[in-house]
Write a structure and sequence with these properties.
This protein has helices at residues 6-9, 18-38, 47-59, 64-71, 75-87, 109-131, 135-152, and strands spanning 91-96, 99-107. The protein is mainly alpha-helical. Strand 1 and strand 2 form a beta hairpin. The termini are far apart.
Length: 183
């Protein structure tokens, strides 16, 4: 007698290996980010400066040490970056009410406007690329987003948590986003 239930005999795809997926995802991200940054007119807004502005927008005002921990970069690098952000007029500093020796850093109106403009432009560039995908690929991308969002959730170090001052897979970046060893 012949079976009519094809699902019983259908081969089951094994779960993909996390290391293989991680390698492919990292490679895609490394190719995608420069694509988005390369066409922006803000040449003095490096990836690390953009990340600092985004961290301040999401979590500020912060002490410089808290910003360093959130970005997982060295305190001295963060201090130099904050000086540059301040020189360009994108942040505000004020004394920390709990410790007058320390200061809190936050985005000012110009910094927030710049961050919003960059996000609008990069979202537009990415939307343009996504719009070229076939409908089945669009659905796959949409279905993958919750898993990607889960990867990011909880990935930020807690404020005040010790950190190495460098990403887990490479040397510390200088404030302009280039690896320190490339200087």
């Amino acid at each position: 007698m012949e079976r009519t239930d094809a699902t019983v005999d259908a081969p089951v795809d094994p779960a993909p290996e996390p290391a293989e997926l991680a390698g492919r995802l990292r490679a895609v991200i490394q190719q995608l980010l420069p694509l988005l940054r390369g066409r922006l007119p803000y040449r003095d807004l490096t990836p690390s400066r953009t990340a600092a502005l985004a961290a301040l927008a999401a979590h500020g005002p912060l002490r410089i040490s808290e910003l360093a921990a959130r970005m997982n970069i060295a305190l001295s690098t963060t201090s130099r970056m904050v000086e540059l952000l301040d020189d360009r007029g994108w942040i505000a500093r004020r004394p920390d009410p709990t410790d007058q020796r320390a200061s809190l850093v936050s985005l000012n109106d110009d910094g927030l406007a710049l961050l919003r403009a960059v996000r609008r432009e990069t979202t537009g560039l990415l939307a343009e690329r996504i719009g070229r995908l076939a409908p089945d690929r669009l659905r796959l991308l949409q279905d993958a987003l919750p898993a990607l969002e889960d990867l990011v959730e909880g990935a930020q170090p807690a404020p005040g948590r010790p950190h190495s001052g460098r990403p887990a897979d490479g040397p510390a970046d200088t404030e302009d986003g280039h690896p320190a060893e490339d200087r």
